[in-house]
Design a protein that fits this description.
The structure holds two protein chains of two kinds.
Chain A lengths: L1 E8 L8 E3 L7 E7 L4 E8 L5 H12 L7 E7 L4 H17 L5
Parallel strand pairs in A: 4-5
Antiparallel strand pairs in A: 1-4, 2-3, 3-5
Chain B lengths: L4 H6 L8 H8 L6 E3 L9 H5 L10 E8 L2 E8 L10 H19 L5 E5 L10 H18 L5 E5 L8 H8 L2 E5 L9 H8 L9 H8 L1 H6 L5 E3 L3 H14 L10 H9 L9 H9 L4
Parallel strand pairs in B: 3-4, 4-5, 5-6, 6-7
Antiparallel strand pairs in B: 1-2, 2-3
The chains are: A alpha+beta, B alpha/beta.
Amino acid sequence: MEKMEYEFSAGQPALGRTVAGVVASGDLEVLLEPGPAGRTTVAVQTSVNGYGGNWKALLERVFGAGTLPAARIEINDNGATPGVVRMRIEQAFEEVTQGGNAP
Amino acid sequence: MSTDIAQLLTRDSFIERSARSRAKALLDEGTMRELAGPFERLHSPWLAMQNLVTQADDGVVVAKGRLDGQPTVVLAIEGAYQGGSMGEIAGAKIAGALELAARDNRRGIPTQAVILFETGGVRLQEANLGLAAIAEIQSAIVDLRRYRPVIGVSAGTVGCYGGMSIAAGLCSYLVMTREARLGLNGPQVIEQEAGVLEFDARQRALIWGLTGGEQRYATGLVDACVADDTAEIRATVVRLFAQGRPEKHRSDQAREYLARLERLDTSAQPSPADVRALYAQGDA
């Protein structure tokens, strides 16, 4: 198990909070809450060690432009592929935008 | 139960939903409020110490709301996380919610409970703390069912095993799909402990034949065997709540069930049909 933290520039605070996905085999859970304007933090907990470079590259591709709403994101990952990780993050932002799934 | 392709494609599967989505689908639209949810960050401290990735709700969703207008709490176990196993926090969430529901009833609010069993039983990494939590769940079910029915649903595909199968047995009513299984020891545990001649855990037909939802319904150990269809499961739960408390809970008939088991010929592996015949005997 490995823990990593990342920070990116971002837009205005996200409009709500949500959780997407489950810590199932090959899946992950993404918790998304509003963050302070201009800054997104991502805390990753993953079952697979030694893939920090892949996480950094993937998250930079998602958040690098700095245009997504500012959020505090927690990722609990159980060996998901990069494609699944990206989909879950996008799902979380979509749910927050639609204001539907807040637990 | 039709296997018509068009019907398979259009139906709203309950099995494929996550625990949170199942709870939301059961409750009346717009009434669900989650208690001790993921943003409380009740991660299992014991799994973290063993270098395992934790889930922010520890695999249990406590959803308060209304079902057909009645105050209801749904306790949904997430089978995809750690096999739906019961650790200290997951178990405490279920037990605590059931205890609060019983307290509601003593104060004149007829809160009822649905438990979505998707669990292999105790979480081995949390050992005695998980076992203690399961004991608390069982006590709380017995307490709450004095006021309102406690309904257990096992949709699959994990099913319900171990100490939590006893909790399921204590429920006022049980609902299963054909895909779900219900038993004390899982097939692999039996094979490991008693040998492959006793039980071959690779024989799926045997496993479902003896412990699947259809067989459990045929032997009277569950009250409904339903299709994997969200609307049908919800309607069945509503119908069972409307029946009120059963005259006699299944667990109050232990003596009758034991009498049947004593008649079982254990010299040969009983077939599913043998078991149905055995349970059809007697008057219970």
